[in-house]
Structures are given as structure tokens and as C-alpha cells.
Amino acid sequence: METIECLRLPRGVTRGTVYKLVPNPGTDMYYERTDRHLGWIRLDEQTILRECIVAVAGCGGMGGLILDILIRLGVGEVRIADPELFDKSNLNRQYGAMLHTLGKNKAVETANKARLVVDDTTIVVYMQGITIDTVDSFVKGCDLICDEAEFFAVVVRILLHRSMRKYAEADLLNCPTVGHQVYITKFTAQSMTIEEVLGMTYEEAVIFEQKVRDGTATTDEIDRVTNAMLAFVAPEIPEYSADTEEYSTQDAVLHRLRKQKTASIIATNPPMASGFLSNQILYHLLSKKSPLKRNYALPPVMPGYFMFDAGKFRTSIVKEQWWGKDIKTVLRMAMTDADHQCAQKHIERHYRALFGTTPARSDEYIVAYRNDRIVGVVALDFAKSNGKILIEDLYDIHSSTLPATVTAKSSIQVGRWIASDEHVSMSLAYASALRALYHGKLHGWVNHTDAVHKVLTKKGIKFHALANNGINLAKVRDEDLAFYTKHTSTKPYIMNFYQIIEALHDKLELYRENGIVFDLHMTA
């Protein structure tokens, strides 16, 4: 790998080359331009900063702004890496994104813009990004590393961390933005590893990213990595919509991330978050190299984090693991009016966003909570006070089309559910089937065909087919089938609850292993 030293980047940069922009020997203004720092820091500390090296992986909403702040601060050398090109979606927040840089390499254009600010520092440009060939050169000799790689870059993240531990010269800070929040996590050579956090090795990460590129990654594989990254970079996903509002910022952001693989970032937050991180970089460098002791608050090592929420003006410091099996998902009945309203709102928001309709209120709800946040709901429709529920009230099914075992006056239970992941979804189905049996006078569950499930999945609803969990729908008797009169190509199955429970009961241990806790009072 060739490294070329130059004052400014040449026009014809090549991807396989590292460019080291060295200080301009004709510029002699370093201490003059950093003079306003004095008082908050000492002159000898400014000299310390001039001798420091900081590496920033990623030149997006955070990385580019951090480079700008660090060179203005007077950090002597900043290394930047990013293989991506600027596009129109970057214009809302990224330092180097301008009309004339669209379609151009982020690291190169970010360095070009920064070089117009000052030219008495060193900027090392890795336009090929972090790879197995560049990572050691990028990390070795640094005083601090900043991970600002994009959300799904698990290979890059693991490479950075492995190299950090290999040389054990620098700590690594990660600083994601979530809404109007900013988090800082710190890794050291002795701390918890990123592989433990993500639950995957480097080799597994390489295979996963290759599957994503090939289009062969399964939904479950993508969900597993998404959930692991979410737990890491977004310990708390804030809700900025008032409880009385139908629109949920939290639900909308999660929907975009899970279904469109796009992380929502508001333009106002990267400047605040970059300043937050840059202050921590300053504190970190001075705490390691300055003889002057200070009262700066430094983030705890992993597992742990700092958080500041500008939207709600609150902070938190967490010093223990906040994700994984220690975090439980509790399934419980909605008992109070407030619980009912929250559950109904959760379902209404999803259904309105997905189908443009609002489902009727239900008799009961089973709600899945994780960290006091709703991650799944089942709405249960039971027999009315007269012991009957008309199937025509729930579905577009005419009595003349019903099988002999199900009449229009039959009592049935229907579960409409929205859930965050497969284990929550299946555990809700199991819990509601149990609840139905305890409730009594019920025939079965309406479960749509796989074709319908595929349509729902494309629309963003997590609706796992029971057919994939031990129930062979192909063997369901014709007399146990009902169908829509207006949409005869899609047939819902009227299923016996014993069949559902039998199929899902063997998965109870799997639910428990994934932190599912059943806190239900199954009384009639």
C-alpha cells in the first residue's frame, strides 16, 4: 500500500493509495490561531494537542464535523477513512456534502474542505476506507480512535476493534446519534469486545455482509444483526410524539431502519453530537498526557455509556450491560385503562401507517414490554356478553361461505398483533392461544395464507406465519377453511387453539433463552 505525502490532494487520486497531507512549511500561525483556547487550557497543553494523533473512521454526519473541530482545536494529525461517495441524502447533515461534491469520495472531499480551513496540521486520507489491508496503518500510533462508521458496517467495526486491541495504544470511542440524543461508549484493550456486543466473530461478519451484497441474507439474519446494532448504538430509542398523538416518531424511525435499511438522522443533531464527542476527545487526550488534573467526566468503559438528550434535556450514565439476556421482554395483560389505551395506540399507529385503516377496539390486549417500552401487542376479540361473536363483524366473510364446523354465530377468537421480532411475535401467539382456552367458548384462530404474510411483510408488519412453526396448513381439512367473499384468492385458516399450542409449546425454552417472560394471569 503506497503512501504519498503532499500539501494538497492531487486531482487524479487513486483508490489504492493513502494520501498524507503534511503541514505547509510556509504557514507559521499555529499558536496565533489557537490563542483563544488559552485559559481553558494551558500553553503546554496546546503543544501536547499538536503532538496528538486521532483517527476517525467515517466521514458522514459526525466524522466530517469532528475533523473540522479537531483541526481547529489544533490536534496535530487526524486520520480519516471512508470509501463511500456523497449523494443527495447526505446534504442535510454531512460536512463535505455540497452540490459540487455529489458523486465524489467522502474522505477526499472532506479533506479538501478541511484543508481550506488550516494547513498547519496533518490529514491522512484513506479513500479506500477501513479494510484488512489498511486498518493497522490507520490505527497504529494513534492516541485515540473514533468509530463513526455507518450503522450496518459490522466488518469495519470489528476490524477497527481488533487492531485497537492488537496495538493497545489507544482507546476507541463510538458516538451515535439517535433523534436528539447522543451516546458515547468507550472501548479499551481490556474492556468488553465489540464481538461480544454484536454476538459475532469477524469471520461471521464477513459472511453476513457478503450475503447482504448477494441478496441471499435471510430476514432472520438481517434482523439479528439489526437488533444487535440497535441494542449497541441506541440503548434508548426516544419517543418525541406526545402520548395523545397518533403519529409515533419511535415507530416511524424503527420502521425505516428495519424495512428500508435507512437510519433517520435529523439535521440539527450531528453538530450537537459532534461537539459532544469532540469535547470528550479533548478531555481524553488531556487526561492521558497533561500533568494538570481536571474534573472532566469521562465515559465508563464498555459495558456502559454516556447519554445526553437535547430534546428532553436529560442525561444518564450507565455503568453496566444494558442489553442481551439480562434484558427481559415481559408479556402481560393490559389491566388498567391506561394500559388499554397504550396498547390500542400501538396497534392503531402501525395499522394506520401500513394499511390506512384503524382497527376496532378489542376486549383484551396482551402487551410485550422491554425496558418499559412496548415491543409487541396482541389484540384479542372474544365472545360478546351473549356468548357469541359474529365472524362477519371481524372479517369480510359471508355465512354462506363458512365451513360446516364454523357458522356465522360461532364464538371465535382473533388475534391481531404487531411485534418487534420473531420470538416476541410467536410468544404472543402462544400466550393468546392459552388465554383463549381459559376464556372459553372459542373455536379458533384466523391465520392468513403465506401469500398474505409476504404482502404484510413488504408493508412492514411483523406477522410470522404459524405455518412456519410446526403447523402444516396443507393438511388442514377443507371443512376447516373459510375465505373472503371479495378476495377469494386469499384464504384465512380457522385454526384450533390446541393445534397452535402444540406447535408452539416446544419453543418455550427458546423464548426463555431470548429473554421472554410470561407474566400472565390466565383466568377466565
At a glance:
By secondary structure, this protein is of the alpha/beta class.
Question: What's the arrangement of secondary structure elements?
Answer:
Layout: E1 2-6, E2 17-21, H1 30-33, H2 43-50, E3 53-57, H3 63-73, E4 77-81, H4 106-115, E5 122-126, H5 135-139, E6 144-147, H6 154-167, E7 171-174, E8 177-178, E9 181-187, H7 194-198, H8 202-214, H9 219-233, H10 249-260, H11 269-289, E10 305-309, E11 314-318, E12 329-333, H12 337-355, E13 364-370, E14 373-381, H13 391-394, E15 414-419, H14 422-439, E16 444-447, H15 450-459, E17 493-496, H16 497-505, H17 508-513, E18 516-519
Parallel strand pairs: 1-2, 3-4, 3-6, 4-5, 6-7, 12-18
Antiparallel strand pairs: 2-5, 7-9, 8-9, 9-10, 10-11, 12-13, 13-14, 14-15, 16-17
**Proportion of residues in β-strands:** 15-25%
Q: Describe the global form.
A: elongated
Query: Nearest-angstrom radius of gyration?
Result: 28 Å
Number of helices: 17
Q: Span between N and C termini?
A: 72 Å
Structural class by SSE content? alpha/beta
Give the beta-strand count.
Answer: 18
Largest sheet: 11 strands, mixed
Helix content: 25-40%
Q: Runs with pLDDT <50, length 5+? A: 383-399, 401-414, 441-453, 459-493
- Please, what is the average pLDDT? 80
How would you sum up this structure, described in words?
There is one protein chain. This protein has 524 residues and is of the alpha/beta class. Helices cover 35% and strands 17% of the residues. It contains 17 helices and 18 strands. The chain has helices spanning 30-33, 43-50, 63-73, 106-115, 135-139, 154-167, 194-198, 202-214, 219-233, 249-260, 269-289, 337-355, 391-394, 422-439, 450-459, 497-505, 508-513; strands at 2-6, 17-21, 53-57, 77-81, 122-126, 144-147, 171-174, 177-178, 181-187, 305-309, 314-318, 329-333, 364-370, 373-381, 414-419, 444-447, 493-496, 516-519. The strands form three sheets. Strands 1, 2, 3, 4, 5, 6, 7, 8, 9, 10 and 11 form an eleven-stranded mixed β-sheet that branches. Strand 3 (53-57), helix 3 (63-73) and strand 4 form a beta-alpha-beta unit. The radius of gyration is 28 Å and the shape is elongated. It starts with a strand and ends in a 5-residue tail after the last strand. Mean pLDDT is 80; it is low at 383-399, 401-414, 441-453 and 459-493.
